[in-house]
Structures are given as structure tokens and as C-alpha cells.
User: What shape does this take?
Amino acid sequence: MKAEQQLRWRLILGETDSEHLNPSMTPQQRQQDQLLEYLYGQEYRRDNRNIRGGTLDESSLTIPEWINGIHELFPKETIERLEKDALERYQIQEMVTNPELLKRAQPSLTLLKAILHTKHLMNQEVLALARAMAKRVISELLEKLARPMRHPFLGRIHRLKRSHLKIAKNFDARETIRRNLKHYDRERGRLVIETPYFHSRIRRQSDKWRLIILVDQSGSMMDSVIYSAVTASIFWGIQALDTHLVVFDTNIVDLTDHCQDPVETLMKVQMGGGTDIGHAMQYGASLVSQPTKTLLVLISDFCEGGDPRRLLSVTQDLVESGVQVLGLAALDERANPVYDQRIAQQMANIGAKVGCMTPGELANWVSEVIE
Assistant: This one.
């Protein structure tokens, strides 16, 4: 039997009924095998038919982790079948469909992702609890990210101008030492600071830059979608920016009206489906009024389901018009992307900046451009 056939039968039969099959598997295929075993392997475990606690024998998976895993590693049609079997046959999604279990759940980013993946299965009572849970997780993210993201927009240091405002972050250590050397105490070996010196800061120009954030809704981009919603809400409150937030798969949803509320934004996101990045970029281009005062940030894995030529053509037109185009393969704390390097390189070749960033790094980039 060929290796490909062995792998297919292993995934179909599972660990119990495939003792004589030992195909070589990639890390992704091993994860798929583990996810399928989590759901269907219990058919052969009489002692573990009730898995409502969220674990299954030696598996370290929790229910939210299983939900997130299938959405990242399987196509939409397979996800729908797995969810149907999980809900109707095994009831392992109770963590996000049972109100009592959801009340006892510990708020976390993992649970938030599972809620967003399965909110379409929830009744109104559970959905209200899920929204409250999402709000708690998002509030923690906002508290963590708001200060470092807003800091670059407080005004940049003007090193040629002094200030009488004695603010620690404006302290000019080098100038202070230089000007106070005459007060050096030789006997004690100490420098006495008689007069500290501080930098001044320049406020930004009042006219706004337009920031357009396009976010890929494909399953593997969930972390970036969450951080994009939080990031956009923080940018929304910065006076120097006119922020627009758009999510897309093969369809486009403009969430700008909900931008200030990341919870509402996320509850309107529909993860999965195909990906038409070129279509999204065309919509982004339609929002441009002053190209030389526009930043367009595309957050995607660059796995284009449409015609790549349209994506590259729109990108080139934007760059040549003066728009600052930034393609991000990841936007979260880890900034550890998986993406189509060929498409990303082609975008970089025609003038787009391409990489991966944390929200703080994105804020610094935006700040530097609008200066």
C-alpha cells in the first residue's frame, strides 16, 4: 500500500483500528490525527464515554483547544461535519453551548477563540454569557496593550529643544551629566546633579491620516483577528488617525462603525470560508481619498484563493499612488506566522512592506510613518 493511502486509512480508521498502519506524518498531519482521535476514538473507550470535563484519557487537549484546532487544520466542509458529530453524537462542545459550564469556565484567549468559532451554534442565553466572557478577555487585552500602543502618539522627542517640564520619560541623561560635571565631588566620587535637563516634545499635526486595516477571516488567522479588533479600537481613539476596519474571506464586511467596540466587532466576525485578498484590497483602495496620507495594513496568511494577478496589480497601483502598504502575516504577541512566502515576496517586490508584528510594533511603525 502506498504511503499516501496508508495515511488516508490511518486518518479514517484512527489509532485503534490501524495497528498495522504506521505511515510517516508531518507535524500538521499528526495534529489532525490527534484531533480526529479526540472525537472518534472514544467509540472504543467504554470507560470514557462522558467527556464533559474537557479531557480525554492521556490527551492534553481541552474542548476549546479541540475546537480551535479543527478550525485551523481542516477545510470548511470537514469542520461542519466534525461540529455536527461533536454536538449531536458526543456533546463535547458543552463548554461553549451549556450555560452552566460556561459560567464556571476560566476566561482565556483560548476560550475566546472557541466561543468565536462556535457562536453560531449558541442559543440567546448562552450567547449572552459568551459575550460577557468575551468582554472580560478583551478588557484584559485592552489594559495590557493600550499604554504601549498609545505611547508613540504622545508626541516625539525634540532633541534640539529643552523643556522645563520635569517628566521622567523626557529626561536627557547625557546632557544632564555633561552640564553638571562641574559639580563632581572628588572626595566622595559622586556626581551631584544640581540642574537636570529634559527634552521637549512636538505635537503632531492636526490633520488626520487614514488607517485602513484589512483582516483575513480564514481559520488560521484567529489570533490575528482578535488582536486586530483590539488594535483597531485603540487606534480609533488616537486623534491623529481616521481608522477603518474591514474583515474578509470571499466576502467583505466593513466593521468601521463598530471599531470602537472590539467585542461587538468580534461577535460579527464569521471565521472560515475561502479567501479573496485581491477583492479586499480593491475595497481598501476605494476607501483612499488622499493617497499620500493613507496607510493600508493587510493582515493575512497571503494564501490567495482568487487570481494573484489582481492582488498584485491593486497593490502596485496603491504603492505607486503614494499609499503606504504594509502586509502582516501575523499580528499578536508571538508574531509567529505561517504564510505563503511566494505571494508575500511578490508583494514586497512591488513596494509593499511585508513582515509580522506585535501590536506595539505596529503602533511604532504607524507613528514613524505619520511623522
